[in-house]
Write a structure and sequence with these properties.
Elements (H helix, E strand, L loop, with lengths): L3 H34 L6 H33 L6 H23 L8 H26 L1
Length: 140
Amino acid sequence: MPSPGLLRLLHGLFNAAVMLLFFYQARLGITIRHARRSKAAFPLTAVKRHRKVGPVLVVLGGLGFLAGLALAILFEGRALQYPLHFFTGLTIVLLLIGTFLISRRIKGPNSPLRKPHFVLGLCVLVLYVIQSFLGLRILF
């Protein structure tokens, strides 16, 4: 079995990659939002990628949380060894689920659900950055 330090590092690297993918997802979403609001040409490629990548990222975010939970239980003996890191991760997962569920109900360019989807997405990004710093404090 790999060492706890190596597994923690892999957990951090995996979640850093997922965070970067979420920033890419945000860039696609902002491109779509800008085009819709300015009545510019419909960015079909960005829309297709945003819709395709979103659900995958929700799963990856959840797996990152579960991996961290498993590491805490395996090597520390309890899930709440790092409570701030745990609850920030849990909040990210809940926001991801909420963002995903809202996205499935968005219909048409004037849907009132677009703004909550946007706001929840921004919250996910902010929390991922905070979570990264909390995780670095655990590693070092």
